Amino acid sequence: MKREEAIEVVFGLLPDDAACVCANGMIGREAQRVRDRAGNFYMIGSMGLAASIGLGVAIQAPDRRVVVLDGDGNVLMAMGSLASIAALAPTKLLHVCLDNGEYESTGGQTTISRRLRLEEVARAAGYASAARATDPDALHRAITAALAADGPAFVLAEVDGGRGAQVPPRVALEPPEVTARFSAFLSG
Amino acid sequence: MSETTATAIPGADLLSMLEEAGSRFFTGVPCSLLTGLIRALEDRQAATDPGAPPIYVASVREDESVGLASGSAMAGVPACVLMQNSGLGNCLNALASLNAIYDVPLVLLVSWRGYQGNDAPEHILMGEAMPALMETFGIPAKPVEPGEDADAVRAKIAWVHEQAAATRRPAALFIRKGVVG
Predict the structure, then answer these.
(1) pLDDT in tens, A142-177
(2) What are the residue ranges in chain B where pLDDT is below 70?
(3) Under CATH, which number does the domain A3-187 receive?
C-alpha cells in the first residue's frame, strides 16, 4: 500500500482528541499532507525520538489516546525505546510503524527492516499486542483492534518505497509553532 | 576544597530543591556522582500510586531521556534530565535538532566525570571538552562545586530553571563529585 493510504486509514480511525507524534523524514510531511491536525507533532530532526516523545506525552496524559507515527529507520535507530514503552506500558499508546524498507528522505537507501520483523521485536519486548498489515483493509482491522484493547500496541504497515512517488511538501509550520499548537492541544 | 560527605547535599534535599524550582518529572541514565539523588527519586517513585504518572523514569539512553522529557514538557509537566557527561555525546543531536529549534525547555543535570583530568581514561576527553561543548551548543551552564552550602546550591537550581523557562531551551548544571550526598 502507499504510505498516504496507510496514514489515511490511521487518521480515519483516530478520535479527534488523539495526539499523534510523527517521525521525521517523509512521515511527518506525508501526515501533514493527508490531514494537518492540531494534535499532530511533526518532528523534523532528532531521528529516533518520535517514540520517546510520544511516551513522554503518554505518561503525563494517561487518559489520552497517543499515537506514534513512526518509520522503520526510526524504530531501528532507537530500538531501546521499544523496551521502554513495553516496560512503562501506557495502555493508550499506539505505535504505528510505516515500514518502506528504506531511508527515503536521504535518497532511498535500504534499511535492514526487510530482513527482520519489527513487530516481533515489539512483541518480544512486551507490547500488549503486535500486528503486521500489508494492505489497507488489513491495516484498518489492525488499527481498529488496537484501539479497542489496552495497549501499548504496535502495528507495522508495509508501505511502498519512495521510487517514483510524489514527494510531500515540507512541514509548513515553523518548529515553535508546531510546539505551541501541540501543547495547546494537549492542555485542552 | 573538601569532598567529604559532610558537605554533600542529601539526595532527598536536592530533590526538594528541584521540585521547589519547578521540575515535576525526572528521567535519565545514572551516574555514580548522582547516586543519592537517583535513590531519592527511586524511593519517591516506589511510594507513588502505580496508576499515577511517574515522577521518575529510568531511561535506556540519554537521547531517549531528552525525548521523554520533551514529551512531558509539551504535555505541561516541566522535566529534568539526569545524566553522566558521557551521555551528552548520546544526546547532542536531540538537544540541537529538537529542543533548540522547537522551544522545548529542559533542565539538565550533568555529572562532571573527568574533571581536571583526574578520572578513568574514558572520561578525560569529555570532562575537558564539556564546558566548551555546551557553549558551542548554546546551552547556558554553571558548575556546582563540592562544599557549596545548601543556599548556594538552591540558588543555582533556581537559576537553571529560570534560564530554561525564560529561553524555552535546555539549561544545565554540571554536578561535580561530592556535591550529591
Answers:
(1) 999 999 999 999 999 999 998 878 899 999 999 999
(2) 1-6
(3) 3.40.50.970
Listed by start position, the domains of chain B span 5-175
The cell 507524534 sits on which residue? A21
pTM more than 0.90: yes
**Does the CB of A41 have a partner CB in chain B at under 8 Å?**
yes
Asked if the C-beta of B103 comes within 8 angstroms of chain A's C-beta atoms, the answer is: yes
* A156 in Cβ contact with A119 (< 8 Å): yes
Q: What are the residue boundaries of the structural domains of chain A, listed by start?
A: 3-187
Tell me which amino acid residue A5 is. E
- Overall size of chain B counted in residues: 181
* Chain A residue closest in CA terms to B77: A60
Q: What is the ipTM of this complex?
A: 0.97
Nearest residue to B126 (alpha-carbon basis) of B164, B169, B92:
B92
Return the SS3 of B155: helix
Supply A19's cell numbers: 495526539
Arch. (CATH architecture) of B5-175: 3-Layer(aba) Sandwich (3.40)
